[in-house]
Amino acid sequence: MVRVLISILILYGYLNAGEVIEAVKGLLGNKYYQHRKIVNVLFRNENAFYRDAYPDISKIAAKLKANGLLNLYFSSPRQLTLSLAAKGDPLLFLKTVNESLHDIGYSFFTTKEARRDGNYFHWKIVLKSESAIDPELFAKELYKRGIFIQRVKRKNSTYWEYDLDLSNAQILAKTLNSYKELSLRKPLDDYWFKVDIPSSMVEISSHINDNWHPYVIFYDSSLKMLGYYTNKEKEKRVKLQIPADTRYIKISDYYSLSNIKRGLRIRLYQ
Length: 270
What we know:
Elements: H1 2-16, H2 19-28, H3 36-42, E1 50-51, E2 54-55, H4 57-66, E3 73-87, H5 90-103, E4 110-117, E5 120-131, H6 135-144, E6 148-156, E7 159-165, E8 174-176, E9 182-183, E10 191-195, E11 201-206, E12 214-219, E13 225-230, E14 237-241, E15 248-253, E16 264-269
Parallel strand pairs: 3-7, 8-10
Antiparallel strand pairs: 1-2, 3-5, 4-5, 6-7, 9-16, 10-15, 11-14, 11-16, 12-13, 12-15
Helix pairs in contact: 2-4, 4-6
């Protein structure tokens, strides 16, 4: 039994040998060959740089930066191109990647290309920046949303490619896992909830001094819209049927979040 286990570990190491170095090559581009000797020393224990089945881009990039090998800054602002591809639903892809970029400070960019190719979705954006997007920070935000970087390639200092694994992707949303009423604070953005228990109805109430105009949308796990409820007139309470296969609920105000500045209350029913 011990021999079998050792054989499996050796085989695993053999099959994965070089993947971390390939990730380093992707991050450094042509500069890898200038630093090959120090890279081999820094990453001699490749198994320490894995996260689940993939090389941990966040950890690898951090190691390269700490040793002065990953320079991301330009001498002056330049146009940066980011090309991303993943197998999966475009809606979930766009929301999770968009939010990840936003959370590391990139909110203004232009879509140069957005297309489906079979089961894959390709998204290319351009932006003006003083540096390339930091792969360490970008990877961390993607990880928060269950997204792994399969491959990163630095074609040159201003053009980067990312292949992503969205098989476990999910948006950052507050989990509803109880049938007790939940009080919500003043929203800075639309409320997003993940339904984590069997539920047939949801009840939403506003503060007595607010003027809520309900705007409620139900989505499945791929962010396909399953149903919605809106009202241009103010309401204090609504009780809505939850469509089958609902995974996420977005709640807002039809006109402005300032109309629910005192927050809302939400409750699920089995």
